[in-house]
Write a structure and sequence with these properties.
The chain has 295 residues and is of the alpha/beta class. It has eleven helices and eight strands. It has one domain: 3-Layer(aba) Sandwich (Carbamate kinase), CATH 3.40.1160. An eight-stranded mixed sheet has the order 3-4-2-1-5-7-8-6, with helices on both faces. The protein is globular.
């Protein structure tokens, strides 16, 4: 098989209804395909959003909350509901699922990064399907990874995946917004992610999620630089996961760097925290604090 170890990422809108509640039908479509790929011998990881969206209704919120504490409480409820659906569906096919909640600190700290990678390796060797989400209940805003597109790319690089698939309700990458620009052309293959590609990606995603095409391009950069090819394709098609695994998906494919960064360089490039101090003399201090400019 071309791609044995695959990381799939599904966004909030791909597994919820328009009112933000979980769609069992959409989740069943995803788990059905995962089960088929698992039987075919693939090693699979699923990075799934949706905890906040699944939980806020159960707590009585009429719409997705904006306050941090409200979102964290919603995630605490919703993560359990989310895993309940995935576990029930996969166990009916005899597949063990494992919940892993990660935060930026798990990548920034080298020992925790190595421990997480080790646990994932064992789960894959034992034929389990890890289901990963950011630990929204305890992550503070300034220390969050921020979106699961980035998280999935970091996980794909960590475990040296053969493919990262970003599933979305946004139909691939175009040269412009196809909803407003009839001349927009879909990009089937991207050899190199440059400023023009980033500019094409535009802005935000759906009302229930945190990502958009721009976050997917940034995620594709992390994965491709680490030697992992990336597909961005629609989650609305019934066999989208299987098609991506066979390199037959109708989406945008990002070619990886020929020689991907090794684990140590990945950690230094993308995850380690930069720290330092800048010392200035009295003249520079005066210019910065009193005159508001650098000298």
């Amino acid at each position: 098989m071309k791609y044995k170890r695959i990381v799939f990422k599904v966004g909030t809108s791909s597994i919820t209804r328009s009112d933000g509640s979980l769609s069992r039908g959409k989740i069943q479509t995803i788990t059905r395909q995962l089960a088929a790929l698992h039987r075919a011998g693939h090693e699979l990881v699923l990075v799934s959003s949706g905890a906040v969206a699944a939980g806020f209704g159960a707590l009585g919120f009429k719409k997705r909350p904006v306050k941090i504490a409200d979102k964290q409480a919603s995630a605490a409820v919703g993560q359990g509901l989310l895993m309940e659906e995935y576990t029930a569906n996969l166990s009916s096919d005899g597949i063990v699922s494992a919940q892993i909640l990660l935060s930026r600190a798990d990548f920034a700290d080298k020992r925790r990064y190595q421990n997480a990678g080790g646990a994932l390796s064992v789960l894959l060797q034992r034929r389990a399907i890890p289901i990963i989400n950011e630990n929204d209940t305890v992550s503070v805003e300034e220390l969050k990874i921020g979106d699961n597109d980035t998280l999935s790319a970091q996980v794909a690089a960590m475990i040296q995946a053969d493919l990262l698939v970003l599933l979305t309700d946004i139909d691939d990458l175009y040269t412009g917004n196809p909803n407003s620009n009839p001349d927009a052309v879909r990009l089937d293959k991207i050899e190199h992610i440059n400023h023009e590609i980033i500019k094409m990606a535009g802005g935000s995603g759906s009302a229930n999620g945190t990502g958009g095409m721009l976050t997917k391009i940034k995620a594709a950069t992390i994965a491709a630089e680490s030697g992992v090819p990336v597909y961005i394709c629609s989650s609305l098609k019934p066999d989208s996961l299987a098609e991506a695994a066979e390199h037959q998906a109708d989406g945008s494919f990002f070619v990886p760097r020929a020689k991907g960064l090794r684990t140590q360089k990945q950690w230094l490039a993308f995850y380690s925290e930069s720290r330092g101090s800048v010392y200035v003399d009295e003249g520079a201090e005066h210019a910065l604090s009193e005159q508001g400019k650098a000298c």
